[in-house]
Amino acid sequence: ALSGFFDCPDLTCLDVFAEEEIFSPTIAQIIPAIAAAPFASSLRTLGVFLLNDIQPRLDSDPERSPHLATVLHPILGLRALENIRLTLGTSALLVEDADMRKIAQAWPAARNILLQWLGFGPRAQPPLTILRHFATHCPRLRKLAFTKLTATTKEEGPAVTAPKETVVSGAGHPLESLHVRFMLGTGDNRVSAARLIAELFPNLILGEPPQAPKPRPGRTERPFRVTTGMSWEMVEHEIRVLRGEVAAGNEDEDWSLR
């Protein structure tokens, strides 16, 4: 147990790295050990990075995999956490809307949240609307990152059409950085996804737009290929377009009032 190594009841920052080439179920005991440590209630920054051979777990029935919120349950009681970085690469997990709601509700003081998991199977790809939970329950959040989100679900239709929740009022939610490593969906979902994100996080700072490749002398460049898939960069592009339309509309309104 962590409490057996040192006695630091006022410890505020902890990073734990565990990597094994051979699958070992004992690695899953790290999270409960952190929650039981004497310094747990003092922690403000927590990083947990768990990696090992996952093949034995992937060969089993994916429906028997634990839920993300169940795995994290011991540390969800640490409500004073402000900076959370979690990489769970030891087993397949079920990651659904209910898991994300519990996580967002557990850490109201959070400023930075990074959640990485193994995105195998359709039940490890939560809908984009989980962002509403963080907009509602984490009013101080500035940075947010996930492994994988989907803008559509076969059972529920477009995820971006889910009912709205109450979000931060006034100047809007303070989130400035949002990144999704893998965005699932089709080109038809880009605009609706961008509208949802722009609505929830009006202060979001977007990355630099990709630059078109420079033509090479003496070489005929192929025409730009239009893709029907989705990526985080494509969603950011649609947010830029929406912001441009809003700015143009505001200018027209200003001229009409003169």
Would you give an account of this structure?
This protein has 258 residues and is an alpha/beta fold. Helices cover 27% and strands 19% of the residues. Strand 4, helix 5 and strand 5 form a beta-alpha-beta unit. Helix 4 runs parallel beside helix 5 and helix 6 packs across helix 7. It is globular, with a radius of gyration of 21 Å. The termini are far apart.
Kindly report the spatial arrangement of strands forming the biggest sheet: 1-2-3-4-5-8
**Structure annotation, total helices:** 7
Low-confidence stretches: 153-158, 222-227
Rounded mean pLDDT score: 81
Number of strands: 8
Spatial extent as radius of gyration: 21 Å
Portion of residues in beta strands equals 15-25%
Outline type: globular
Helix and strand sequence? EHEHHEHEHEEEEHH
For the structure shown, list the relevant keywords.
single chain, globular, two-stranded antiparallel ribbon, 258 residues, 7 helices
What is the secondary structure topology, with strand pairs?
Layout: E1 13-20, H1 30-36, E2 45-52, H2 55-58, H3 68-72, E3 83-89, H4 97-106, E4 112-117, H5 131-137, E5 143-150, E6 152-153, E7 157-158, E8 177-184, H6 190-200, H7 232-257
Parallel strand pairs: 1-2, 2-3, 3-4, 4-5, 5-8
Antiparallel strand pairs: 6-7
